[in-house]
Amino acid sequence: MEREGAERLIRVAAGAVTLEGNLSLPKGADGIVLFAHGSGSSRHSPRNRYVAWLLNEAGLATLLVDLLTSEEEAIDLTTAHLRFDIGLLAGRLIGVTDWLTEHPDTRHLRIGYFGASTGAAAALMAAAERADVVGAVVSRGGRPDLAGPALTRVKAPTLLIVGGNDFPVIDLNRAALAQLHCEKQLVIVPGATHLFEEPGALDQVAQLAREWFKRYLLTQSHERASN
């Protein structure tokens, strides 16, 4: 897939703050995946950047964005409370989503969310609020249970990926899966822990995410174009 230039830094106004992100737009992309990072992570996470690279290779655009400002991140390193403020994170994600629907380079793209850890809950809450534009959600080692009542309003097909050795999170994902009324699937990666650091584990996550987004973003985009 030919690339239209290198990854570029973007700044998005979301309420009273300005968020920074890294946008990659492969030539001919029909969908874009917005990454919602988890507890103590950032858009520079090597795990999410690897997944984003694989999605770019499949013809999907990606936007890795920090949902907290640098000042907020510094505070959160000490208090660890902002990363669990799901309403705040979801609101920021909605702000970035609205920016994507208005920006000339991305407004034609079907939007998907890739959420990790607490970012998965924010992604699901935002997907419930922007059901008309969010076409798919993938959670990696996520805490979808923290989305609470919003789970019942999610319409986007949702894939939950959990490590086979991440026992408490498996149970939390099963409970969240039961509350989802959309097309849904839970995949447990054998032998993997919470961060999928075992050999080959992250590759499985990336491949599962790629196939999910290709099915629900690219295929539906092509179907709408032909109608």
Overall geometric form:
globular
User: Total number of β-strand segments?
Assistant: 8
Overall pLDDT score = 89
Let me know the largest β-sheet: 8 strands, mixed
β-sheet strand percentage? 15-25%
Report the CATH C-level class.
Alpha Beta
Tell me the distance between the termini.
25 Å
Total of helices: 6
Order of helices and strands: EEEHEHHEHEEHEH
Output the CATH topology: Rossmann fold
CATH architecture descriptor text: 3-Layer(aba) Sandwich
Overall number of structural domains: 1
CATH superfamily: Alpha/Beta hydrolase fold, catalytic domain
- Helix proportion: 25-40%
Neighbour order of strands in the largest sheet: 1-2-4-3-5-6-7-8
Q: Which stretches of 5+ consecutive residues score pLDDT under 50? A: 1-5, 221-227
CA-atom Rg in angstroms: 16 Å
Look at the helices and sheets and give the structural class.
alpha/beta
Written overview of the protein:
The chain has 227 residues and is of the alpha/beta class. It has a single domain (8-226), classed as Alpha/Beta hydrolase fold, catalytic domain (Rossmann fold, 3-Layer(aba) Sandwich). Helices cover 40% and strands 23% of the residues. The protein contains 6 helices and 8 strands, in the order E-E-E-H-E-H-H-E-H-E-E-H-E-H. Strands 1-2-4-3-5-6-7-8 form an 8-stranded mixed sheet, with helices on both faces. Helix 1 (46-57) links the parallel strand 3 (31-36) and strand 4. Helix 1 packs across helix 6. The longest helix has 26 residues, at 201-226.
